[in-house]
Amino acid sequence: MSQLSFFDAEPMESDTPFQAWKNDEPLLLAQIVFQTGLDGTFDYLLPESLEGQLHPGMRVMVPLGRGNRPTLGYFVGETVKTVDAKLRAKLKTIQSVVDTERLLSAKMLDLARWIAEYYFCPLGTVLEAMLPAGVRGQAATRLTSVLYVDDEFQKKIEHLQKLQRDKKNEPLLTKKQIYVLETLHKSAEPLSTSELCRAAKCSQVPIQALKRLGLIRVKTIRRETAPKPLDAAPANPADSLAHTLNPEQQRALDVIVDSVRKMEHKTFLLHGVTGSGKTEVYIRAIEQVVRYDKQAIVLVPEISLTPQTVGRFKGRFPNVAVLHSHLTDAERSRQWNKIARGEIQVVVGARSAIFAPVPRLGLVIIDEEHENSFKQDTAPRYHTRDVAGKRAALESVPLVLGSATPSLESWHAAKTGRFSLLSMFHRVKGRALPSVKIVDLREAVRAGNTKGAIHRQLHAAIHDSLQRSEQVILLLNRRGFSTQILCPACGNAVRCPECDVALTHHRTEEIALCHYCDYQIPAPTKCPKCDCFGIRYAGFGTQKLELEIKSRFPDASVLRMDTDTMQGHGSHERALARFRSGEIQILLGTQMIAKGLDFPNVTLVGVINADTALHLPDFRAPERTFHLITQVAGRTGRGEKEGRVIVQTFNPDHPAILAASRHDYLQFVDKELPVREVLGYPPYTKMLRFVFRGPDENATKHIAEMFADKLRGVLQELKSGKFRLLGPAPAPLAKLRSFYRFHLHLHLDSDDLMQRVLFQTINGLKTPDAIQWIVDIDPLDML
């Protein structure tokens, strides 16, 4: 990041007279970064009135620009510079300090600097992302006047008593006043007037007298307001029970705890099949952390933050904080402050919880580490796994990555020695993995039996499960009713004018909706292009599947879970509670039902179409397909009853589907990794994606081509390391929210080369205001 001095404004008055300043005298300057719009670190004068009040990690108000508009910035450190008198006169001065305490520790500032450098993002933007809006806005707090006694109050009392003895007057302090002073002095924190009245059992009269004598001082502080009760995790006695570990679990635990005890940083990849008891290993390891008076952070996909998941931790630890996107600013601020005070033993949360301000960190865990939701899709575009690794290294604590289907990046890191591999190949209590049956949908097409989404084999299996009073989960990773609206006369597909993607029919509202920009129109009854009334609604979404299930099994209770039905506060939790209780027999939905659920009465899982993501223009499509099928298959057979899985597919011979049907992760990686290596994709290369977007297609393409030429020139000039540059080309989603999009892919062989290439290419880059661009380091989204 660049280092700048802010000399663009009119001269301001400074604390030191102009004439008295010596050119050769070094000057201590405060370094400030801004949350948006400005990259780099800016130098400001620190007035004497603020000395001792400012610490790195606090926010300040400073004058900015030629108009000297008051602007919020972050104080990140100090620097000593020698400047001449003319430049010194132009330096601006910090106006005020916003925070009474630092919001970020020194190590968290180091982490922020690393994120800014690695992901090529302004430091101010990183700091803004690390701190929740409720914390930045000081939600759930209010300014309060409080009373306190300073360190000199005892000397003041002795002085008053001496005056009273010398003059032989009546005592200057009454017994009640002395009691009030002692009460306030013994208090662990300052008290308001009303609080001191209650504590000392007095009126305001003695307090006011003590204030006039200067024995009680007044200051304004920010205090938390009374909290509203949060939704509690479900009470389940089983959550508090410690289970006997099997040998695989015990071996994994012993290795992790040894690293915790030594306070050393290591990254462990805990590869355990679904139902192998990874969560119990996490909990046992955290118990050791707590015994050492340390704290743990447990990161899970947002989708897995169910009461069941949270309940397991709350059942074993009395002080658990939960951080997720459904908290209000006030709730998140309260949780954050409790964490910062060291009152919390375990922080459970989604990706941003990696920034939780635990003062005594002892262990970081990322469950389902393969999940795409651990990658931030806005600046800073960080991957939680890498940020967690850096934070754990800074804090000298172990990091545990857990998954039944690890990302190929993590697997490769384990195989090459960067991570330590811990394996658990068996389910707890010796339970068998569910049997998986692949149904070839091509046979149904050849036989002309294509009515509905449910093949006869899956229909029969659902019927059998319902007859035995067992539960069923059905996965279809497509929202809506029909996924395409087509005209058989002219071949037109009804598309979004803003995004140029097919609109999805939502029957409940009778609309055609774009799932990218929310553009919608009434569901058409005729072709918008040729006015033909024979328009067809094709494809299956979860709404249509729900209707079919209810038609086929009218006596069964059915619940659909997707982003359309799970919009209300607590709707996700209420839906799963109904399923857990047995009120719901068939649960169907998108990928939100594929992970983190543990219901012993689920004996059948049906994958309606295993191919929904298989043919996307993304080199990770096979990996994501394998993950999804394996994870949803793991939702069955977790109790005493055996489970089974039926996978419907048009690609029964695809390696990813075959490996998932056998629960064979090693078979999948042995097939997929050589393909990645030959094609030069991660984990064998460092990958960057540049995306340009603008309202004019040709202008956007031109800027992307100019950037590619500059990038190519820099790469050839450096002459170090291997690289491959693809593009520019239209992005798979070539138009999104009225913007045309072009992208480039750059593959490099080292982080060092990446940093040099980015700095030389991007430094000083200017594009027209109408055209925006981003760089995504280690991208997961290829669309």
Can you describe this structure in just a few lines?
The chain is of the alpha/beta class and 783 residues long. 32% of the residues lie in helices and 22% in strands. Strand 10 (320-323), helix 12 (329-340) and strand 11 (346-349) form a beta-alpha-beta unit.
Textual characterization of the structure:
This protein is α/β, with parallel strands linked by helices and 783 residues long. It is built from 23 helices and 29 strands. The strands form 7 sheets. It has a 7-stranded parallel beta sheet with strand order 10-11-9-12-13-8-14, sandwiched between helices. Helix 6 crosses helix 8 (205-212).
Task: Draw up the topology in text.
Layout: E1 27-34, E2 42-44, E3 59-64, E4 69-81, H1 85-90, E5 96-97, H2 106-118, H3 123-130, H4 133-136, E6 141-148, H5 153-167, H6 175-186, H7 193-200, H8 205-212, E7 217-224, H9 247-262, E8 267-272, H10 278-291, E9 295-299, H11 307-314, E10 320-323, H12 329-340, E11 346-349, E12 361-367, H13 384-395, E13 399-403, H14 408-415, E14 420-424, E15 435-440, H15 441-446, H16 456-467, E16 471-475, E17 484-486, E18 504-506, E19 511-513, E20 520-522, E21 536-538, H17 542-552, E22 558-561, H18 571-581, E23 586-589, E24 602-607, H19 621-633, E25 644-649, H20 655-661, H21 665-679, E26 686-694, H22 697-718, E27 723-736, E28 739-748, H23 751-762, E29 772-777
Parallel strand pairs: 8-13, 8-14, 9-11, 9-12, 10-11, 12-13, 15-25, 16-23, 16-24, 22-23, 24-25
Antiparallel strand pairs: 1-2, 1-4, 3-4, 3-5, 6-7, 17-21, 18-19, 19-20, 26-28, 26-29, 27-28
